[in-house]
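#structure-requests
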Amino acid sequence: MKKPKNPVKVSVILDKGDVDALDRIVKKEGYHGKSEILRLLAKRFIKRYMESS
């Protein structure tokens, strides 16, 4: 994954169950960490939103 040109730090507050689920996804899919998968999900959500509006 390439680095963003102008990165902005965003905080996310999650329940313990959500964090555990993210940990399982990271292990199963081979991501480098929770922040990587959250970044990918956010990009996918934003792209889908922009296409629908």
